[in-house]
Design goal:
Distance between the termini: 40 Å
Order of helices and strands: EEEEEEEEEEE
Number of strands: 11
Length: 120
């Protein structure tokens, strides 16, 4: 199985920056995609950015394009999310997730989550 451990997050003022890091371990050979998702109170979970594990460029939701950068390193088994020009609406719990060939469909492995709070 794959395990994901996130770090980073915290409290930042509007317009500031934060970086999140996710390290994958275990059967990383089973990963075919990774991404960051977020859950805000009272809102549905949304996919912030996702990318194929081995090639290609990330896809982002419109609200973070130009502000967030997802970097995956399939040698170091890391998936980082660099967030700039943060807004209060970016507040939420951020999860690193992986789609693997083991388990169910979709992003079937996720980390414990890390809180990001952007104050106005």
């Amino acid at each position: 199985q794959v395990q994901l451990v996130e770090s980073g997050g915290g409290l930042v003022q509007s317009g500031g920056s934060l970086s999140l890091s996710c390290v994958a371990s275990g059967r990383t050979s089973s990963i075919y995609a990774v991404g960051w998702f977020r859950q805000a109170p009272g809102k549905e979970e949304e996919s912030v950015g996702v990318v194929n594990w081995r090639y290609g460029s990330p896809n982002y939701i419109d609200s973070v394009k130009g502000r967030f950068t997802l970097l995956r390193d399939n040698i170091k088994n890391t998936v980082d999310l660099h967030m700039n020009r943060l807004k209060p609406e970016d507040t939420g719990t951020y999860y690193c997730a992986a789609a693997t060939s083991e388990g169910g469909p979709g992003y079937n492995v996720r980390g414990q989550g890390t809180q990001v709070t952007v104050s106005s």
